[in-house]
Write a structure and sequence with these properties.
Elements: H1 4-7, H2 11-19, H3 22-27, E1 30-36, H4 38-41, E2 50-56, H5 61-75, E3 79-82, H6 84-88, H7 93-102, E4 104-105
Parallel strand pairs: 2-3
Antiparallel strand pairs: 1-2, 1-4
Length: 106
């Protein structure tokens, strides 16, 4: 069994990597990007995906998919992207509030 803790990304590493790659965010017209979920709470496991809330300047399909693929390549993990509109459409208020409380912006 491999040591997942040794190779695990941390919240700070993810945020630092995003800050160090402004051209990636510019390429996909990202206005603002935040981390939420297990990595933001520092409760991730080896199977956790990385959850991002992304506000796009130009919310196109190509920007959404392109950013998702690039982030997966950058971090070597599955990535889930939620937009502010998607967050607003979550009907269970407790879930949306939990996301908002754990958001950490890059």
């Amino acid at each position: 069994m491999k040591n997942e803790k040794k190779n695990a990304l941390t919240r700070q590493q993810i945020l630092r990597t995003l800050r160090q790659n402004p051209s990636l965010l510019e390429r996909y017209a990202v206005k603002k990007i935040g981390l939420f979920g297990s990595y933001a709470k520092e409760r991730q496991t080896g199977r956790s995906d990385i959850d991002f809330l992304v506000a796009f300047k130009q919310p196109t399909y190509d920007n959404f998919i392109g950013l998702s693929r690039e982030l997966e390549n950058l971090f070597g993990k599955k990535v889930e992207i939620l937009t502010p509109e998607g967050l607003d459409s979550i009907r269970v208020r407790g879930i949306a509030e939990s996301i908002r409380k754990t958001l950490a912006y890059a």
